[in-house]
Design brief:
A 5-stranded antiparallel β-sheet has the order 1-2-3-5-4, covered by helices on one side. It is built from 3 helices and 5 strands. Helix 1 packs antiparallel against helix 2 (38-58) and helix 2 (38-58) runs antiparallel to helix 3 (101-108). The longest helix has 21 residues, at 38-58. Strand 4 (111-116) and strand 5 form a beta hairpin. It is of the alpha+beta class.
Length: 130
């Protein structure tokens, strides 16, 4: 048994990242059983925030967020128009240049994947414990 929201949120600006987080909270609140624990829900929201922000910043300026609830996990998928995969890099501790998000997503998720999309772009997915 699983519940899917397809194309839950199309995000076109960094100010809309808050809307993506709200969509995730509404999705998680709407799940019946098993209920998602608060710390797990916070982790899903954080991962969505990072993936959507990265897609907007590095992936062409717009993205689509899909959420899927499985019995023991939540799958987050962010689609954007860039063919370039996220990469690990040394975090910028002084200039605010980033480098923290993708390593954090990889630490928080059970697994991550980057899949090229037919017609261009990619999907970045993270599977998180429910």
């Amino acid at each position: 048994m699983h519940t899917t929201i397809t194309n839950a949120t199309t995000v076109r600006s960094t100010t809309a990242v808050a809307g993506a987080r709200d969509s995730v909270r509404a999705f998680l609140d709407g799940l019946r059983r098993p209920v998602v624990a608060q710390d797990a829900a916070d982790t899903v929201v954080l991962v969505v925030s990072e993936l959507v922000t990265n897609a907007l910043r590095h992936g062409g300026g717009a993205c689509t967020l899909d959420l899927t609830a499985h019995p023991d996990s939540i799958e987050v998928a962010v689609h954007d128009t860039s063919p370039h995969a996220p990469r690990m890099r040394v975090p910028d501790l002084h200039g605010g240049g980033g480098g923290f998000g993708w390593p954090m997503v990889n630490r928080l998720a059970r697994s991550t994947s980057v899949t090229p999309r037919t017609g261009g772009g990619k999907t970045v997915s993270a599977l998180l414990t429910r």
